Amino acid sequence: SVLRKNKEALGWIIEDLKGITPAYCMHKIKMEDEYKPVVQPQRRLNPGMNEVVRKEINKLLADGMIYPISDSPWDGECALTTED
């Protein structure tokens, strides 16, 4: 199959994705003006998970995979899952 022949081109872990610039691949969600943000309370995480999330976010920031936006009223919940 094409995927098996070119598996080195795929990113299996975040470290595999270094070097991909946002100029090459960036996703955008276009919002319509009539939709406004809805404020919901932030969900609390237990201290252990909070530290895991903090480390992962710092890693993604350092790798350039995400970047902070301070002037947007839109925000997203953090959804945690386990790897099985």
TrEMBL record:
Entries under SUPFAM superfamilies matching the protein: DNA/RNA polymerases
Organism: Trifolium medium
Alphabetical list of Gene3D superfamilies matching this protein: HIV Type 1 Reverse Transcriptase, subunit A, domain 1 (3.10.10.10)
Protein's UniProt name: Reverse transcriptase domain-containing protein
